Amino acid sequence: MSLWSRISNVFRGECLNRDIEEEFEAHVAEAVEQGRDPEEARRALGAAIRQRQESHDVRVIGWLDSLRADLVFGWRQLKRNKVTSAAAILSLALAIGACTSAFRLIDALLLRPLPVKHPERLYVLSRYGMGFDNKPGEWDSWAYPCFQLMRAAAKDEAELIAVSYVSRTDITYKTDNEIEKANVQYVSGWLFPTYGIEPALGRLFTENDDLKPGAAPYAVLSYDYWTRRFGRDPHVIGRTLHVDDRVYGGVFEIIGVSEKKFTGTEPGTLVDIFVPTMMHNGVTRNDWTWFRTLAVVSPGVAIEPLRAKLEAVSHAFEAQRLSGETGLSQETLKNVLANQVRMEPAPTGASGMQQEYSHALAALAVLVLMVLLIACANVANLMTAQAAARAREMALRVSIGAGRWRLVQMVLVESILLACLAAASGALFAWWSAPFVVSMINPPDNPARVILPADWRVLGFGIALTLIVVLLFGLLPALRASSVKPVSILKGGDDPHSRQRMMHGMIALQVAFCFLVLFVAGLFVTTFERLSNKSTGFSTERILLLETTSRPAQSSLYWDQVADHLRSVPGVERVSQASWALLKGVGWNDSISVNGGPPSVDLAYFLSVSPGFLETMRIPLLAGRDFREGDLYPNAAIVNETFARKFLNDANPVGRAFVKASDDGSRERMQVIGVMRDAYYRGLREPMLPVIFTPIHNMNKNGEMHPLKSDTFIVRTASANPMALASMLRQDVAKARSGFHVSNVRTQLELNQSQTIRERLLATLAFFFGAVALLLAGVGLYGVLNYSVQQREREIGIRMALGARIGDVARRVTAGIAFAVIVGTIAGLALGMASVRYVESLLYEVKATDANVLAVPCLTILLAVVIAAVPAVLRALRIDPVAMLRVE
């Protein structure tokens, strides 16, 4: 009989049995035709049951047939216990789905190689040491002249590629009134051929397109952007667009579309438009660092000697660049020149999102792993309880010849069915939850776009996870079920205490992991609460931010005219201007000199604002006066308390003067006309910085007002919802003066909230997983307590008949569980204390020893124990002693 026939017979079932029966009867009929007695013929052929079994064994593959039988039996078991099976599937589905979702995010940002040739040979260059602010750090930004020197030095060992940070930029295709946003990236012309990227349409850049500043005004669209924006229109080639950024000219001709798989080198951000690096007006400046340097190392090249060579080039460049610098202290110069160069493997690319969320994703992975372990322990307890109920069945199977492996296989197959159903449900949860988490990462005006394909990597992880889950919750119950002793069981001598010890051990494990999840969740929630409720020093109430550009750059007097027009709009209370809004995350800093002294080691931070800015933002002025219309940069300055204390050390700093080194080497004298209360400048996590507000009006050497290309109008509205005026104000800016356009509108509150996006994400997910862990642990506690009462009904009934009190019964029912919970809590506390060091960088003003951080998981678990114990105790108290004695 062929192999295929034996395989197909496994699934024929009753049809195969009928075929065997018909064949048997045919043999009997043939013997009868030869004159033999029917009964004698049957005896000669052997017992019908034995004949059928032997014939069945010949026609099928034995192990496959037993597996099919176990699948059918396992499915019947699941259907017979619908409630418990559904609970197990739901808990496992949630855990598996959460793990798969976390893997999709981690894989997309940190693990998935770039779709380029030889990603394993890709490295990113960075410098680490002390910065110009004399604080330790690491920077992956470079100046283009230094890049050119390093590329020439590494010519025979590696190809260096310049890739700018992706910027969300204003794009114009038709008229100036149709501005839209797109992610623009400046790249070396040899990027596409080096990476092996082919065009989907037109052509891509070559090295000849990136040789001379401003000489190649070309643009390449990504396939994703071409699809979203142009519907894959092939006639896009030859069209022009205007990029409102730091570029030569600004008008680019579209020459091609990159192939579908390549969306840039920054995981978490999809590039829309590529332009050559030589079109950036910073390519000739040695003091402007604006791009990353990626290195494709040639085969067989040692990394350390190459790194040392590039470091030598970088040191020489910096030493020459800073040789005539007079605006920095000698200590700062020494620290900066001592920076080291790193070459880190970057097969997945390099992005700010990787740096910001790598620790957060690692913490998220640990949380979901804890939930998975709790769910597995929960289901293991459930299956152990079911195995106890099936002890006599297992004993009978062993008695009639079933081997130990046969019983293990039968229980494991049931576990596999359970896990597969849970995995299917979990896949749906992961399909929804991963994009949902991504949507929480960035604000609406600059959303993260992470590619989350459901490919073989995710499928392989899901299959591996399902198998691990089966082993975690199914193997131990299967081994215990297979070790049954038939004689003891059939005599009614099964000892439940060993099984209870195992179940109590599982409960202790669940409680430990649950405590850890709740403890870490408490740290993250407290961090978010304290950071989001932190006083910023200014008001966000009814503040609308209009980030505005002008094309071309126009005099600050014209910007004043636009501001005056906005003040006349109904519903507008106040309008002020600033170079950028507070807490936007950007800054301008420099050293200063006081009383003719050397440049300061610490840096001061600057922001240009218009008169009335302090009143608009409701920042109190503590001394002196606000800016007036006639105040010009750099003559007047308003400083905050931190600056006055740090640099001037004067109880009355109004009237004091200091000197700032300007970009052209000249010394700019500033006089303090006012002192304001401290307000956060760049970020809430930073310490309070010394800040100087300067007038927004700046007169050049020719006596003309310095033109501005971009500025932010800060509008305080009368409406409680400032966004209600957003559309009107956007149109009024364009109407007020030709060439002005609002590129982005948001509230100050949204900007403040963007400071805590990571903390909000961690707090939300940690709270969710903490609730899930608590629910699973509570269900596990209830199940074990209920099983314990069920096994001890006769003992409890007899004790009650002998006069046991209610308290004594409740104590005996809960004693074992209470001990397991205490052990689990202590273990969880130890795990929590050990884990703090790994999440410390994600915390803010919260310690593991804070009373509320420790009290919340303890009290929550105690409440869960009480809720789970009440039904079991009530069931024990409802036992009828007379009925139990009658049974005895």
UniProtKB/TrEMBL annotation:
Major localization listed first in the record, in broad terms: membrane
Domain annotation ABC3 transporter permease C-terminal: ranges: 366-485, 767-871
UniProt keyword annotation of Membrane present: yes
Superkingdom, taxonomy of origin: Bacteria
Membrane topology category: Multi-pass membrane protein
The UniProt record lists the keyword Secreted: no
InterPro entries: ABC3_permease_C, ADOP, MacB_PCD, Macrolide_Exporter_MacB
Pfam families named among the record's database cross-references: FtsX, MacB_PCD
Keyword vocabulary terms for this entry: Cell membrane, Membrane, Transmembrane, Transmembrane helix
Record field: transmembrane: 86-106, 361-389, 410-434, 454-476, 507-528, 761-785, 813-834, 854-877
Cellular localization per UniProt: Cell membrane
Residues annotated as domain MacB-like periplasmic core: 85-312, 517-724
MF term (GO), any: transmembrane transporter activity
This protein's GO CC annotations: plasma membrane
NCBIfam families, per database record: ADOP
Similarity remark: Belongs to the ABC-4 integral membrane protein family.
UniProt protein name: ABC transporter permease
Species for this entry: Alloacidobacterium dinghuense
